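Why do we bother with a discrete structure alphabet at all? Because it lets us treat a fold like text: something you can write down, compare, and reason about line by line. To make this less abstract, here is a complete entry for Major facilitator superfamily (MFS) profile domain-containing protein. Read it the way you would read a sentence in a foreign language you are learning: slowly, and without expecting to understand everything at once.
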Amino acid sequence: MPASSQTAIKVATPVGTVFGQIVFGYLADRYGRKKMYGIELIIIIVTTIAQSMMSESRALNLVGVVVFWRFLMGVGVGGDYPLSAIITSEFATTKRRGAMIGSVFAMQGFGQFAATLVALIVTQTFRGSLEPSATPADCDSNCSLAADKMWRIVTGIGAVPGCLALYYRITIPETPRYTFDVARDVLKAERDVIAYMNGVTRPERGLDELQRLRDKDRNADELRVPRPSFADFRQHFGAWRNGRLLLGTSLSWFFLDIAFYGLGLNNSAVLHTIGFAGQENVFRMLQNTNVGTLIIICAGSIPGYWFTVMLVDTMGRKNLQLLGFTMLTIFFIIIGFAFNDLSRGAFLALYIMSQFFFNFGPNATTFIYPGELFPTRYRALAHGISAASGKLGAITALAFDPLRSRGANPDCKNSSACSPWLDNIMKIFALFMFCGLISTFLLPETAQRSLEDITVEHGSAVVALSTPKRHPLYRESSSTGMTSVIPPERSFWDWRRRSSQQSYRMRLFSADSRV
């Protein structure tokens, strides 16, 4: 296949993902999370099945059709980023919100394992057709037919989990925060809480949300929140205290994905370096690549995901992201400068630890952070913009792929020999990880804080009080010019027990405040 065709196929999905992340983020803020959550999954299912069934004809070029369907699949995949994070965030309890969002993200580790396992099984199934060919270039008709069947099977099976999840996405209730804060339908918000409470959580957790909504309803005539609009979006994020949050999440994700996807593009070269990509024949090449990938996923990626789930609410998002970027910077510097001196065992250990700290660090926290930092009316769009920045980093990583083979012998036979510049690429990735470390300092800590408290504290919520002094619980500060109100506690029962102490307060901007 020509290099231009390979590049087009590689770029199609991330470009579609960028488009889907921004468009579905906007639509989720405009029309609701529930509606868009089912639509984007339907797009993924349809395009995945279509890819596995397409064929070439005199009127259609196979590469062009592949690019078309992969772009559309990317649109659906892109929509899943903001919607999965935001729905989980807006339903989650404050105490375990990070773990809940992290567990949603961590499931992709099992997805990676399942996909590689399916590929390994399919490779074994077609062993007889693959073994006679020494290299992919030597594939005879039987080998080519087997390869064609293999990629269609592996791709088509990817639609099965989506079909199983479709029912639950269609029947999930709208998040009460969206219904109240954006749609401004308090009665429906209360019904959404009850539906969620009866379906997937214990009643006492639902009482917390229900009491909050009733308390908001009681004061709705005194609270005014701007409606989402382009002018309000520009004014809101034009303020540095708000814009720096979006800048921080976007830059962190961008720098991360340059290295994360850059390593993915060089996976075959890395696996050959650590001894998992022998090329006796096409079958051995595919089998060893799949086995090596499974080992890395099981030893590094999956543990990293679930360590994040266990510790993100105690360590905090910021500390975890700083730790991850720091360790990745160190590992990539070691690999880059000692590339030719490392033993296979040392290289394998460093690479597995890199995969661990990708996921026990910025790969997870860049997904969690945007679901918490922004006001409800722009939460999905801001998450989509942050995620799209990451995918732009993935597209940027494609530029490093040609550098990998710089100075290579045209007659090289394996991925390692054809990648003489891989050590320098690792040094470049170390620089990007350091940039990600710096960008993390733009972000605040969000652990153990409610979404409302986070958005108000960092200037991400505009709540104007028409007559603040009329309410018996409003407090005015002469030093800050701000007004505070005592809301319900995290638990309804804690609120009843401690309401007399009036210890839990949420700051609200007075009528003449502007963000």
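What the structure line is telling us, in plain words: The chain has two domains: 3-172+230-442, 451-508. The first strand starts at residue 223 and ends at 224.
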